[in-house]
Structures are given as structure tokens and as C-alpha cells.
Structure prediction request, 283 residues.
Amino acid sequence: MSPLVADELAQWAQYIQSATGIYLDGSKGYLIETRFAPLLKEVGTTSFGELLRRTQVDTTGALRRKVVDAITTNETSFFRDNSPFELLQHKLIPDLIDTRNRSTGAVRPIPIRIWSAACSTGQEVYSIAMLFHELKVDLKRFDVRIFGTDISDRALAAASRGTFAKMEIDRGLPLDRLGRYFATDGQTYRVKDEIRAMATFRSINLLEPFTFPHKFDLVLCRNVAIYFTERDKARLFGSIARVMAPDGTLLIGSTETITGICPQFEPKRHVRSVFYSLKVNGS
Ligand SMILES: C[S@@+](CC[C@H](N)C(=O)[O-])C[C@H]1O[C@@H](n2cnc3c(N)ncnc32)[C@H](O)[C@@H]1O
Prediction:
């Protein structure tokens, strides 16, 4: 493998940012070297510049998808960071059910639409589905659909399978939930049908225009905008604001903030957690 030279790093950084929004500064050459080493072998070249050229001329898009799979960080876990899930369990979901239940003239079953934007391998989606079961929400009266989207095909395929290795289960899933919501063959753990049935997965690049046939009551967009420039962050959360119900709620990562970046939202605090609502008069 030939070492990555400064020009190649600059060209790769530009390509990756336009393909995914992920911003790599000059110190991130090691990421390209380590993540793309297997792709170099697969393609049969030792040059990072040549790999980029082949990716750019590949009209099938297959190499581009492999590059995206390699460069994205798909780190996630069940009930990641705990407190957003406590907020969901003890406030956001009960309040949402209560509000939709009281709304007059509602269609039946009452639609509840949730979006896990950048869901990676699906743990966030399935964690939310488990909460609806634990809260004993009447799933005949409420049509709860949780949409999981990501830019990485490999992550989405894993999410859609709903099968997890012991190592993934050990990260955040308490034993009682494991017993209740998973079946195992001794090696892997598969989410039960009642949980899997609430989820739909689809490929979406958050920095390209997206539309949905409905508005979302709840959006989780956690730990993805940390890779974007401020400008792309503002664009992303502006687009999310447009697909949310007027009384919808947005949750972002626990180390993130959109205050001062996205004027459409206002922060609200509950116990130790922060969530965002749309401002009544928009921006
Ligand atoms: C660190 S994971 C976060 C997963 C989950 N939201 C969580 O907090 O546990 C970041 C995810 O963002 C996805 N991603 C990166 N850029 C994206 C883009 N432009 N559009 C959609 N997803 C993207 C990656 O593929 C990856 O799965």
C-alpha cells in the first residue's frame, strides 16, 4: 500500500464530504488509510489516488457504496446514553399518546410516526419499539411506525435483519429486556416479530432533499451531525423541521446542541434531559 499523500487526502476529503457530508480535516489521513485498506486489496491497487479515480468512474455506484460503508462510523447501542430513553419512557411517549388520544376527529387507528435519522444498525429503532410495549400502548388503537434511515447500506442491511451478536447485546440491553424481546439460537439474538414489525428501514442521505408522505411526531437525529460542518448541520436540522408535525419533538445527541444553529427549534428541559420543539412562529 503506497502512503496517502497530501493531494490525495485533500481529494478524498472533498469526495467524502460531497458524498456524505462527513468533514475530514488534514489530521484525518489515518482514517482513510485504515478504513480503505481492505478496499484497496479488493480493487487490486496499492494507490489511494487510483481507488478514488475508480470510485468516481464506477457508473454502477457499487464502489461509492463501499466507500460510504467504510468511512461511516456506525457506533451505536441499545438504549444508548440512557437518559433520552428515560425521557421517552416517562414523558415524551406518554404525552404524545395522551395528546393524540384527545385530538378530535382523529383517524383510526391513530398514526404515530417516529424517525430515527441515521439509525446505523437499528438498535435505536428497536429500543424505541420496546418502550411502546413496556408502556402497554394499545397497538390496535395506535398505528406506531418507526422509520430507520441511514446512508450506509451495510448498516441498514444489519438493521433490517434484526439479528445481533452477543457483543452488541451486552452493550446496553438489560437481561429482562433480552428475555422478553429476543429469540436466540445460542449464537445470535433476533428481535421478536412484534418488535421487528414496528420498524421500516430505508436509505436516506440526510444532506440530500428528502420527503415523507406524513409528518413525524418524534425525530431522533443523534450522533451524526457531529461529523458535519456548521453549515451542513443548519441545512440538516432545517430539513428535519420541515418534516415534523407542528407539535413534534426532536432529540439530538447528548454532546450536541443546535442552539444558535437552527432557529426553527427551541430547547426544552425535563429533569436532566433536553429536547427540542418547533417554535410556534418558525424562524
Ligand atoms: C455514530 S452513528 C449514530 C447511530 C445512532 N443515531 C446513535 O446515536 O446511536 C452515525 C451514523 O450516521 C450515518 N451517516 C453519516 N452520514 C450520513 C448522511 N449524510 N446521511 C445519513 N446517514 C449518515 C452513518 O452511516 C452512521 O450509521
About this structure: The mean pLDDT is 96.
